[in-house]
Amino acid sequence: MHNVQPLPVPAQAPRRYAFDVLELLVIPAFVLDAQGRVSMWNRACEHLTGVLAHEVLGTRDAWRSFYQHARPTLADLVLQRRTGEVAALYDDHQRPGGGDANLSAQSWCDMPRSGRRRYLAADVSPILDGDGAVVAVVETLRDMTAEKQAQIALEQLATKDGLTGLANRRCFDDTLHAEWQRALRQGQPLSLLMVDVDNFKQYNDAYGHVGGDACLQRIAGAVASEMRTNDLVARYGGEEFAVILPNQSLKGAAIVAERIRCRVERLQLPNLGVGKQYVTVSIGAATALAAPDTDPAHLVATADAALYRAKHMGRNRISLTLEEVVAAR
């Protein structure tokens, strides 16, 4: 049996040999020289970006293959010693092994040529000469779009109500806390609506749980249709919904509440369980001015109390309570 000896790397051309290896990799990779020009763009990179090597070699336009608007690639940042900007440009980044030479980062890329937005993970390694100076930078890429989309889907499942598609209680609690802190910083009012379906037990008794679920879905759509971009509507629990209205006065909250009440009434969902009436909602509204020594739980309690009054007063109506909490002077 003969021993198989590895072919020697030509001593006079180690860099050319390395480039040939990169060219044959199934992993997308490109190389920038010391002047930031593309000196290698392998076939896998062509396949990923839709940009052929001859279109980009010798240019400083590697970024055009990934973004609609000018911005540096990760390799550019390393080459130009601008790694302090990585956090602002990428969703996530790290230095593998804790070293200073290599850098990894992830972000969404526009991919102008292919027209398909992709989530790419980039790994960058500088090539040094005998004196330690950077003569080139290698960037390899991994398409992690499927993994990212799966992560987003899981996150949405964790924050959305399975029946209505609205935000769930956990998302409501987190958002209310964040909006309370924002209102505190900016000195703006924060309003909250608590919306409850009237006589829902009788509706469930008359139509069954399947009918009740369909009713809640219709009402959820009606409530959500009245929201602004920054508002949040959540299923608070059972047949109760909560609406967070950032930077909204009590007067504005009352207008939104009345629009919601009317829209639900216009659905004309018959409730045979209560004398052939239509399904309606009662709404409690509260507005607060956040202060350092307060928390949003008081706003929830105030809106709940207003909702109870609306129920007590005959249902299918709104009840308002202004709760201004100001810092002690």
UniProtKB/TrEMBL annotation:
Its EC number is 2.7.7.65. Pfam families: GGDEF, PAS. It catalyses: 2 GTP = 3',3'-c-di-GMP + 2 diphosphate. Keywords: Nucleotidyltransferase, Transferase. It comes from the Bacteria. SUPFAM superfamilies: Nucleotide cyclase (SSF55073), PYP-like sensor domain (PAS domain) (SSF55785). Residues 21-58 form the PAS domain. SMART domains: GGDEF, PAS. Residues 188-323 form the GGDEF domain. Coiled coil: none annotated. Residues 99-156 form the PAC domain. It is an enzyme of class 2 (transferase). One of its GO terms (molecular function) is diguanylate cyclase activity. PROSITE patterns: GGDEF (PS50887), PAC (PS50113), PAS (PS50112). PANTHER family: DIGUANYLATE CYCLASE DGCM-RELATED, REGULATORY COMPONENTS OF SENSORY TRANSDUCTION SYSTEM. This is diguanylate cyclase. It comes from [Empedobacter] haloabium. The lineage of its organism: Bacteria, Pseudomonadati, Pseudomonadota, Betaproteobacteria, Burkholderiales.
